[in-house]
Amino acid sequence: SKGGYDHFMLKEIYEQPRAIKETLLRRLDDNGRIVLDDINLTKEDLDKISKIYIVACGTAYHAGLVGRYAIERFAKIPVEPDVASEFRYREPFIDENTLLIAVSQSGETADTLAAIREAKSKGARILSITNVVGSSVARESDDVFYTWAGPEIAVASTKAYTTQLVALYMVALHMANIKKSISEDYYFEIIEKMKALPDKVEEIFKKSDEIKKIAEIIKDKNSVFYIGRGLDYQTSMEGALKLKEISYIHTEAFAAGELKHGTIALIEKETPVIAVASQDYLYEKMVSNIQEVKARGAYAIAIVKEGLDESLNHADETIYIPEVDNILAPVLTVVPTQLLAYYTSVIKGNDVDKPRNLAKSVTVE
Ligand code: M6R
């Protein structure tokens, strides 16, 4: 049931603090260390792994893009994320020293399963992150991490995504702890910061009225662009996918540094450009990018982390998100993008939970 909410999507957005908490806290032991029961990677196994692929589709792929940052930062192993439908046909280099991480909410996505089988046949080890216990993806993997998001009914994925992010951070930290590739202090510092995420997501829900107003502004536009750098670019891709799939507005995400290389030609008077800016070390660059699109007439909407210099930001609208470590920011920055997609779809009178032409689980190619 929708539990008093108008749509499953809104219910699932609001379930995120609880889902993140479950996914995280149920895996911490008395000493606050991560314990992953269904993952049996030893130090020997990890020392052998020379390359990790993260393979998934749609939103799960976007989680994988964030996962790359976490694994490279914490576990210090090179990671290449790829879309499953591309990966399976491009003859990627795979051997016994390869780990393939498959991310899939349903655990039944045809291309993701095919990628697993392809990698397995070449000797790779398979670790999957899925929301469905006993799903095909889980059954065909050597190691499994179950996101405890609970059933996700709306076609547009929300709580599955944020719990996939948490899962990837935890897998990365777990590997780092086994390899001793980061200090104990840093390991516990990130876990502590993750514990604070549910309350911070809750804070963002208070911005719903501001977000509804922005939905009113973008609802009749032909195109909406998302821009970001680093982990904010990954959120931009996810935000753009969410918006297009349920509002039917054309959206695209650009790496903000790429604007000058072609994409800025698309900006006209009043084109909405949503700029995600949560990364301290990239903030000034993002501020310049906002200026650039505004100079071409864009209507700039910024999603900015509190604590970054407000006086620099000249966007037309700004949604603030709570202070957060750069690496964990994607868990928060995505929430306003989910709400914006939701309210835009509602205002347009679309079938929010069952958008046209889409199925929840894509079990055919
Ligand atoms: O069940 P999966 O996580 O494997 O599904 C992957 C995609 O089909 C899915 O994330 C899709 O992109 C969503 N509709 C996005 O909201």
* Terminal residue distance: 31 Å
Question: What share of the residues lie within helices?
Answer: 40-55%
Tell me the radius of gyration: 20 Å
Sheet of most strands: 5 strands, parallel
The overall strand count is: 10
Count of DSSP-assigned helices: 14
Oligomer: single chain
Q: Give the averaged pLDDT, no decimals.
A: 97
Strand order of the largest sheet: 2-1-3-4-5
Which structural class is indicated by helix and strand composition? alpha/beta
Ligand set: 5-amino-5-deoxy-1-O-phosphono-D-mannitol
Shape: globular
Strand content: 15-25%
The run of helices and strands is HHHEHEHEHEHEHHHHEHEEHEEH
Low-confidence stretches: none
Could you please describe the fold and organization of this structure?
This protein is of the alpha/beta class and 365 residues long. The protein is 44% helix and 16% strand. The protein is built from 14 helices and ten strands. It has helices at 8-14, 16-25, 43-48, 58-75, 84-87, 110-121, 136-139, 159-179, 184-195, 197-205, 208-218, 231-247, 283-295, 330-347; strands spanning 51-56, 79-83, 98-104, 125-130, 143-146, 223-228, 250-255, 272-277, 299-305, 317-321. The strands form two sheets. Strands 2-1-3-4-5 form a five-stranded parallel sheet, sandwiched between helices. Strands 7-6-8-9-10 form a five-stranded parallel sheet, sandwiched between helices. Strand 3 (98-104), helix 6 (110-121) and strand 4 form a beta-alpha-beta unit. Helix 2 runs antiparallel to helix 10 (197-205), helix 11 crosses helix 14 and helix 12 (231-247) runs parallel beside helix 14 (330-347). The longest helix has 21 residues, at 159-179. It is globular and about 55 Å long. The structure holds 5-amino-5-deoxy-1-O-phosphono-D-mannitol (M6R). Catalyzes the first step in hexosamine metabolism, converting fructose-6P into glucosamine-6P using glutamine as a nitrogen source. The active site is at residue 360.
